[in-house]
Design a protein that fits this description.
The protein is α/β, with parallel strands linked by helices and 468 residues long. The chain has 17 helices and 14 strands. Strand 13, helix 14 and strand 14 (408-415) form a beta-alpha-beta unit.
Length: 468
């Protein structure tokens, strides 16, 4: 048998999974890894509880939508970014888009401003959450240290050690807690959400999935209020770990659901339930969030990879806007005036399935079959999500437009599908979902993110309209 290369997928956006295993005996090894993980998952481990009840928190500020109204923004522009999952591939592509926004200058009231400084909110899942969280903590410092701290660092080597080291299998601490410790050491250094309350930076919405009910859970105080808990004191590393915790490979991040902070329904949730009507999405979300009020049955909440319920970050953004009551309420909370342009830039680092099974009548391996099935499901769900957001953005802008001011929607998707050079597109589609990439892969991803945004026709139209 030749050398074996194992790549542990960092999130469920491993739409191809082609690089998860590479060896002549990959079928046997794949089965062996699955059996080993099933054995490990049977060993008792307990998630470390790090969310404090509101009464015990020493923080005075809330990391919430209501605390992020910004007076320093261009009142004519509302700008939201979403970062998809995809391990370091997604993190690097999002980083490239941020570089391009940094270097794109617009005129605001006769003054030159960077488009990056106009971002109101970043919604992210899984690999994309490393980029968004780092920017939320360091601002422009991301352009000085993020590449060395994360993009060009072999995180897989340390995560694989924690997962497959037999000595650690019986540690009650849990595999995810081992990962959190390493994220703290290498990337986040003990930072909490209170450390992201910087003036001039956008609201960072890190998203995970509630394993029990299959709903999206966003790390904002509005959601933590449902748990009678304080987000400001919560470690950013643990939120990012929840956003990228692939089930079975990693154990869930656990939050305690406290009681005693409210005697009745939370106003915004009760209002959302009343509005749901024939809206199946809103009705399902409202029902899921209501379950946190059952403190006896839901004493703890188990969070896993955000890509399971939303691999683009777009549905989480949709949830927040809809649950608050629509675009008018969202804009009132995050800015001072109704904008002329409402912009959503979706950075989608998913890859196209490229399987060799159709070149032969040989039965495909178990790994290939599983990856093909999951890949088809993921791409169809992503396509439905993008269509949902395009339609919703049209509705949102109509809702806030007035006879005196029309709000124009701009939906900008940055994805590999728009790369014209076949060799570059093929190279990018072969990049695995992992936390360890070569310098060539990272460089190509960063530059592709920049080029794709710069050459996007909707983005070019936005820049032209902003000059008028």
């Amino acid at each position: 048998m030749r050398g074996i290369s194992i790549k542990i997928p960092a999130d469920p956006s491993c739409e191809t999974g082609r690089h998860f295993l590479s060896c002549t005996g990959r079928q046997l090894l794949y089965l062996g890894c699955c059996l080993a993980l099933l054995f490990i998952s049977g060993c008792a481990s307990y998630g470390k509880i790090e969310n404090l009840p509101v009464a015990e928190s020493s923080t005075t500020q809330e990391y919430s939508l209501r605390s992020f109204a910004r007076a320093d923004k261009n009142s004519d522009l509302a700008l939201m970014l979403t970062f998809s999952g995809g391990g370091t591939r997604a993190a690097a592509m999002a980083y490239g888009v941020m570089q391009e926004l940094r270097d794109t200058v617009i005129a605001v009231n006769g003054e030159s401003r960077r488009l990056l400084d106009e971002v109101d909110t970043i919604s992210s899942v899984s690999g994309g959450s490393f980029t968004s969280a780092y920017y939320g903590l360091h601002g422009d410092g991301i352009f000085e240290t993020f590449e060395d701290k994360f993009l060009r660092f072999d995180m897989d080597k340390h995560l694989v050690y924690g997962i497959f080291n037999p000595i650690l299998w019986f540690d009650s601490k849990g595999r995810t807690d081992m990962a959190v410790d390493y994220y703290q050491k290498q990337v986040f250094h003990g930072a909490t959400f209170a450390d992201m309350m910087h003036s001039g930076l956008p609201l960072i919405v890190i998203n995970a999935s509630d394993l029990a009910y299959g709903i999206r859970f966003s790390f904002v105080q509005e959601y933590f209020n449902l748990l009678c808990s304080d987000l400001a004191s919560f470690p950013v590393a643990r939120a990012v770990a929840a956003s990228s915790a692939v089930p079975v490979i990693f154990s869930p991040v656990v939050l305690q659901n406290y009681s005693g902070c409210s005697d009745g329904d939370i106003d915004w949730l009760a209002a959302a339930k009343a509005r749901s009507g024939d809206d199946a999405e809103l009705e399902m979300l409202s029902f899921g969030l209501e379950t946190y009020a059952n403190k006896d049955q839901r004493k703890f909440v188990h969070l896993v990879d955000g890509g399971i319920t939303d691999n683009t970050g777009l549905r989480a953004a949709y949830d927040i806007i809809e649950i608050l009551g629509g675009s008018k309420t969202y804009l009132e909370l995050t800015r001072k005036a109704t904008p002329s342009q409402f912009v959503v830039i979706a950075v989608n680092a998913s890859t196209d399935p490229m399987f060799d099974m159709d070149e032969s009548n040989e039965a495909p391996s178990m790994a290939t079959s599983m990856n093909a099935v999951s890949g088809v499901q993921l791409h169809r769900y992503n396509a439905a999500t993008i269509e949902l957001l395009k339609n919703s953005l049209e509705t949102w802008t109509q809702d806030v437009s007035t006879p005196d001011q029309t709000v124009t929607p701009y939906f900008i998707e940055v994805s590999f599908e728009d790369i014209r050079a076949p060799e570059v597109r093929r190279f990018l589609n072969k990049i695995p979902t992992a936390f360890s990439l070569s310098d060539e892969q990272v460089d190509t991803l960063i530059e592709s993110g920049r080029d794709l945004l710069r050459n996007n026709p909707v983005f070019q139209q936005l820049l032209a309209d902003l000059k008028e």
